[in-house]
Specification:
This protein has 337 residues and is of the alpha+beta class. It contains eleven helices and 18 strands. Helices cover 39% and strands 30% of the residues. A five-stranded mixed beta sheet has the order 3-2-1-9-10, sandwiched between helices. Strands 13-12-11-17-18 form a five-stranded mixed beta sheet, with helices on both faces.
Length: 337
Amino acid sequence: MAKLDIAIDLGTAYTSIFVSGNGIVLREPSVIAYYENGGGRNLRAVGSAAYGMMGKAPEKTKIVCPIIDGVIRDPDGAAAMLTEFIKMILPGSYIIKPKIRAILSVPIGITVDERKMYEEVLMRSMVDEVTMINSVMLAAIGTELPVASEFGGFVASIGAGVSEFAAIGSSGIVTGNSINIGGDMIDRTIADSIRGIYRIKVNPVTVRRVKDNIASLIRNDCATAQIGGIDVETKNVRSQVVSADKLYGAIHVYYENFANAIGNIINASRTAVAEEIQKHGITVVGGGARIPGLSTVLENALEVSVHIPDDPQYAVITGAGMLLSDPYKLEDIITHA
C-alpha cells in the first residue's frame, strides 16, 4: 500500500498541512459551512469558501469554527473539515487512498480526554496513524532552536484562540503555560473599537483585514484602511477610513497581557532557567507575532531580547514538517514529552 506522511496544524484560525517532500501545501481558514437536513449535516463549503460566506450565507446555512481557544469544540465539524482538506492535498496519481501517517500539533497541557478526541477526529478524517506533539515544541524546531540542548530556548506562540509560552530543554518542555487570549479576542476588540470610535458596524472578514493590514503597536502609526459597514444610527451602508493610531490603545492592552504572562513564567522558573532566558532571550511566533512594534513592546516590558522569525505564522507547521524527515529527533521528542 502507498504511504503518505503529512503534518497538520489544526489551528483556531487556520489549518495548515505539510506533505513530506513537498512542503506546506495547504493553509485554509478553519471554517466549515453546512445546512441541517433531518438532523444531519449537509456540507456546503470549507476553508476559504466557507469563510467568504460569513455574513452573507442563507438563513439555513450555518458557518462554524470547530476549533475554539485552540481546542476542538465541534468534533463532527472538525472531522468533516479536515477530511475535505486532506482530499485537496491527495496527489492525483493515487488510484486508491494511501496509508496516511500524520504528525499533529496540539496545545500545551491538553487533557487525556482531549488527546483522545484529537485522535478520534483524525481517524475519521482519512488519517491512519497520528503522533501528537506540543505546538510550542514544534515552533521551537521550526525556528531552529537547539531543542536537544540543556536549554533549548523560550518560545511564545500567539495564536488566534490561545497563546502558549514554554521554556524548552533536553527535547522536552521545562516549564510552560497558556492563556485564553489570542487573535480572535483582539478581533472582537477591534470591532468594538471601530463601532465606538467611528459609529460603524463591520463584519468579521473586514475586522480581520483591518488587523492584518494596519493594526500596530507603534504609537502614532499613520497607517489607514478604508472599510465598509453599517452606520449604527442610520442603518445605512457607508465607507469609513480607520487609522492604526485610533486603534492602538485597545490592541496594546492585549499585548501587555502577553508580556505579563511571559514575565510570570520567567519569575516562576527555577533560577537556572530564568538566567538562561535572560541570557538568550525569547522567540515569538504565531499569527499575532506579525504586528509591527511587538519586539519593542516585549523588550521594554521584559528586559530581554526578542526574536521574531520571518513568517512566524508558519513556525509550527514548519517544525512538524521537519520532523517528518528526521525520525531520530521525532523519537527523542516523543520520549521526553
